[in-house]
Amino acid sequence: MTRRLKALFKEWFYVLLCVFLTLIAKTLFRLRVTGREMVEKGSGYIAIARHRSYWDIPFLAVALGWRNRVHFIARKGLLRNPIFNPLIKLYATAIDRERLRALKQERLIGIFPEGTTRRHVDPKAGAIHFARLTGKELLPVNIQADGPYPPRYPFSFPQVTISIGQPFGIAELEDQTVKVDTRAEHYRLLSKRLMERVDAS
Prior knowledge:
By secondary structure, this protein is of the alpha/beta class.
């Protein structure tokens, strides 16, 4: 019974959190979302977005809607942050090879391939590996900000538009990528193509 209560708390807290974050996003950021119909009920996806601000995390959850609970892949270093630690324990998995296979049961995974909010960082190949491991389709999510992003506190907030693109399989990405000699280079190109699909959404 304890496990069931914990699961119910997790679901309802996520709904309340999404409602609260939606109010903030629409009030401060005048958030607009297009393409939510791309998320088919019952289908499994890996949602991919660029990472330019810590606001990207709640924006991705809000864009996909409270009915589509996102389980995020997070850096272990975030566990040391007292603000993010409880939320990561509830709705994320810190990157750990032994735990990745267990994530197959999660319907919707959220990954920011760049892994950092620093500019001009090449995307890591983790999303590609994870797509192969789970067999889930990739769901490109383009977060666009008209104005300073991250926002300049306390009064300068950008207008944010989020576009959810057509999901696609890893095989489709392979078909669009030139063959190269080394596995590392191949995965680098796949990751680059993946982010191009995100930007085009």
